[in-house]
Amino acid sequence: MSSLPFAPGLRAATKKRDVIAELGVRTFINAAGTYTALTASLMPPEVMDAMRTASRQYVNLIDLQDAVGKRIATLLECESAMVTSGAACALTIGTAACLTGKDRARIQRLPDVTGMPGEVLVQKSHRYGYDHAVRACGVKLVEIETAEELEKAAGPQSAMMLFFNDAEPRGRINADEWARLGKKLNIPTFNDASADVPPVSNLKKYTKLGFDLVTFSGGKGICGPQSAGLLLGRKDLIEAARMNTSPNSDTISRGMKVNKEEMVGMLVALEAFMQRDHEAEGREWDKRVATIQKAAEKYKTVSCSVEVPPIANHTPHLKIKWDQGAIRIAPPDVLKALREGSPSIEACPMTNKEMLVFTVWMMQPGDAEVVARRVAEILKQASA
After folding, report:
1. Phi then psi dihedrals of residue 274, to 5 deg
2. pLDDT digits (tens, 9 = 90+) for 39-98
3. What per-residue confidence (pLDDT) applies to 15?
4. What distances in angstroms separate CA 371 from CA 49, 156, 339, 349, 366, one per listed residue?
5. SS3 for 168?
């Protein structure tokens, strides 16, 4: 009998398993977009190769975060950077950094903010479903609407100014002015731009505007690990953010762990994203939209429009409407039929009683033709 220890990564290769198929979990064509519950994007081969290589080696995690952060900061022309366990983690540790700095006693006390500035200023229209990640640090969110109200509310208790990038059109203070006011008031500004690439230029835009911290999701348009994100900004705040999370124990974000595979995968995904031919990619998206639109518009009363959201998820959204008296099916029922068919197709959750919505940027080659055929089949049957 061999006396060699068991080495998990060295077992002889056998037939590749499809564990998802074994478990009977539904897979689908993604005509919806980068929704977290739908597992967002698919990682390209070079990202998976990098993660696989990293998985077979031991490193000091702090040294790796140092090196990866330095490379990302160079790529994005910002002062400092780190990989986080998603953009939500970045919100938590970025807020923690603004509260504690590098004071270890304060770091260990969070979410108890007694004796430290504990207020975060935010526009009322910028409250959203992710500010819980900020509130987890024990802070109080102070709502304002105008620049005048902001300056009146600012004071010794103000730890941070939070900006939700997608909400810019709804607010009365734009991103440029928010960053400028933060500098004037000497309060760190944080921009949550998690879903805001493409365009690729956004990766550098907001730190150059003067935001002290900016976060992007790793698993959306960048096509990195779904469990990873980027936190960019001031060197002192990134250092403090790192002290507030794993591998440091007794911190508010100890459980929001990022291992070597996600760090390396995030870096390689970012490099690949920045090197892509984004104009060619845009032309491909337009072709996919046209394929589905052409199939749908064969039927009387069907009309299509294409809209590109101005900030988040800045890609073509195909919106399909019809006279439900002539085509006797409602858009949510088409969504259901697509989901329950074979292959299963997920339409955009923006679908409502009035319209069926698709995005095409997460589709794989050939998917648009399948979606077009299935939509045509469903509309034809409903027309009959």
Report:
1. -70, -25
2. 999 999 999 999 999 999 999 999 999 999 999 999 999 999 999 999 999 999 999 999
3. 78
4. 30, 56, 11, 16, 9
5. helix
Regions of the chain where pLDDT drops below 70? 1-14
Q: 160 near 188, Cβ under 8 Å?
A: yes
Q: What is d(CA 158, CA 152) in angstroms, rounded to the nearest whole number?
A: 11
15's tokens: 């037939």
Q: Give the C-alpha separation, 187 to 275, whole Å.
A: 35
* Token couple for 285: 């998206």
Identify residue 309 by its one-letter amino acid code. P
Q: Do the Cβ atoms of 111 and 137 come closer than 8 Å? A: yes
55 membership: H or E segment, kind and range:
helix 45-55
Output the CA torsion sign for 309, 315, 316, 317.
negative
DSSP three-state, residue 223: coil
How big, in percent rounded to 5, are the helix, strand and coil portions of the chain? Answer: 45, 15, 40
* Backbone phi, psi, residue 346, to 5°: -100, 115
The two tokens of residue 31 are 């005509």
Rounded Cα–Cα distance for residues 104 and 110 (Å): 10
E-state strands within the chain: 29-31, 80-84, 119-123, 140-144, 158-164, 189-192, 213-217, 229-233, 303-307, 317-321, 345-347, 356-359
Residue 103, amino acid: D
Q: How far apart are CA 186 and CA 85, in angstroms?
A: 28
Taking the alpha carbons of 377, 379, 381, 384 in that order, is the dihedral positive or negative? negative
pLDDT of 2 reads 38
Three-state secondary structure call for residue 375: helix
Under DSSP, the state recorded for 64 is H
Nearest Cα to Cα of residue 238 among 72, 53, 28: 72
**CA distance to 142, 231, 299, 324, per residue, from 384 (Å):** 57, 54, 11, 12
Q: pTM of the predicted model, to two decimals?
A: 0.93
pLDDT digits (tens, 9 = 90+) for 274-285: 999 999 999 999
| Alpha carbons 48 and 46: distance in angstroms, whole number | 5
